[in-house]
Amino acid sequence: MQSILRPILFTLLMALCFTGSADTIKANECYLVVSSETGVPHTACMFDYGNGTRKWLGFQPKEQFSPNGSGEIDESDREQLIEKYVRFRVEPQDLQTAEMNARQKYQNARYKLGICDCVNLVVDVVRDCKLRVKLPFNFLPDKVVERLAKSNQPSQHDTRPFPWAFSSVNQNVDLVVSLKEFRCHKTESILSRDKIYVRIFSGGNGNVFPMKTYRVGKDQKINPQKSTVSISIKKGDAIAIQLWDDDKNDPDDLVFDWSVPITGKGELSNRQVRGTQKAGSESIYEVVLLVE
């Protein structure tokens, strides 16, 4: 009897949670974000209800790197791990239904790589949001974003800064954002220093500042000249700042990617761990911005 009642009670509880905010959600534009990640191949969803409420949802093994075993829903913020993403505007009720169904189906599911994994959760959510899904069996996470973008009409596809980073405090006030410093806590390169160049995005346009690279070793701090790495922006807008490791013989590696709303003067800082230690690609960088 308990096994029969448990899913029924769960469904009722979830329905009550969603119903309480239904009227507010209906008045807002709602979006579904699907992302792929750096390091270990993974994909997850972000439910953006348009009222400041954003929820991440993914599915993973309880025991890390286990291809077959107990699974768990992961609700941790994945923004700093995003490699690629696609964003769709969807109906509020469809987004609510997709979240509720995913939680119910995967809360006690067994993780089986290629059969019941992170890709399967994403596919279920996308279908519940009435989007087209053309994915072959056992599709890899890093291809999910590209395939969804081609099969549908996304609102945004891998643009920077992230569209959800913009602040509601939008004023006609001019500010200047400068890269005060960045620090390498761990290089992406195993046996040598990283060769870093900086890219800043504002309004969807990307610029490289300056047209040179910085040789950076572990625990080294770089202080660019304020006039060299800076950008003008309106208060309430957002920028994205990226650090790239310039690999001579391989594709450049993105070691830092931060979208941040600019809401006033002062310093802003962010520290990111990207890649994985097991794969020999882990890097740790920290960036400090100065807003004047």
Q: Care to describe what's here?
A:
By secondary structure, the chain is α+β, with helices and mostly antiparallel strands. It folds into two domains: 2-158, no CATH class; 164-291, C2 domain (Immunoglobulin-like, Sandwich), CATH 2.60.40.150. The protein contains five helices and 16 strands. The strands form three sheets. It has a seven-stranded antiparallel β-sheet with strand order 6-4-3-2-1-5-7, covered by helices on one side. Strands 8, 11, 12, 15 and 16 form a five-stranded antiparallel β-sheet that branches. β3 and β4 form a beta hairpin. The radius of gyration is 21 Å and the shape is globular. Residues 1-22 form the signal peptide.
Mean pLDDT: 86
Sum up the overall morphology in one term: globular
Rg for CA atoms? 21 Å
In DSSP terms, counting alpha (H) and pi (I) runs of 4 or more, how many helices?
5
> Roughly what fraction of the amino acids lie in strands?
35-45%
First-residue to last-residue Cα separation: 64 Å
Helix content: 10-25%
Catalogue the unreliable spans.
8-13
What is the β-strand count?
A: 16
* Main beta-sheet annotation: 7 strands, antiparallel
User: How many structurally independent domains?
Assistant: 2
Order of helices and strands: HHEEEEEHEHHEEEEEEEEEE
Structural class: alpha+beta
Strand order in the sheet with the most strands: 6-4-3-2-1-5-7
